[in-house]
Amino acid sequence: MIAFLVAGFVALAQAAPAPADPAPFSAMKPGEALPAGWIPLTLPKVAAPRVALVADEGVTVLRSTAEAAAGTVSHPLAHDVAARPMLRWRWKVDRVVDKADLATKAGDDFAARVYVFFDVPADSLSVGHRLKVFLARNIYGREVPTAALCYVWDNRHAPGTTRWNPYTDRVRTVVLRSGGAGAWAVESRDLEADFREAFGAEWNGPVPRVTGLAAGNDTDQTGERVTAWFGDFRLERRP
Predict the structure, then answer these.
(1) Fewer beta carbons within 10 angstroms: which end of the chain, N or C?
(2) Neighbouring C-beta atoms of residue 44, cutoff 10 Å
(3) pLDDT tens-digit profile of 52-92?
(4) How many domains does the chain have?
(5) Radius of gyration of the chain from its Cα atoms, rounded to whole angstroms
(6) Hey, which bits of 58-179 come out as E strands?
């Protein structure tokens, strides 16, 4: 939902100086607070998912349970995509969101989402988008991102399906999994390739730096209940 995206941008903009890598969940003990750098994102008047660090097969992972709720945990970054373009992680869900539909605002819910935020130069944007960025950065600071990829665990669309978010064309939704709940799935995404696929028509320079990522789930539109688990996020070179 668009309010969440604004909240995510603001949280990243207000964060302390960003590291190059996200802190690992596996370095913590189950039940401890989130690792330093991870910031819970919640929305006014919307229930937040219940997040916790838990043990799964002897490894500490993040668990997020959304019940008519929306939110994520985010991590600011200062990452050079050209140096390490691969984002790797693993995730699983207990079920999909039955009534979700990524093409509509009313169905914009997912069992699991991973956002990656990019700092596209504002002067490359349309006049309308440039004005919005100018206003946001005057209020919240220069780190407000200008584009995002959103990787999702969907309920009906085939993996590889892509759509613009129904609220904004600054976020490209990419379906990685559809159905198949219950087992861990390992992902490896080339952020450079995915960014160019989504935003290459407007930006043909070097891929902008990544300013942060976020992980979570949401069911505030459909009112359903779903739990997702996330392992560590790693930024790596191509093989």
Answers:
(1) C
(2) 6
(3) 999 999 999 999 999 999 989 999 898 999 999 999 999 99
(4) 1
(5) 17
(6) 59-67, 70-79, 86-93, 110-118, 147-154, 162-165, 168-178
Structural domain for 87, as ranges: 2-236
CA distance 34 to 11: 16
Tokens standing for residue 112: 């699991």
- Other Cβ atoms less than 10 A from the Cβ of 237: the count is 8
| Residues belonging to the chain | 239
- CATH code of 73's domain: 2.60.120.260
pLDDT (tens digit per residue) in 174-200: 999 999 999 999 999 999 999 999 988
> Strand, coil or helix: what is 5?
helix
Rounded to the nearest 10 degrees, the angle between the axes of helix 2-14 and helix 127-140 is 50
Identify residue 54 by its one-letter amino acid code. Answer: V
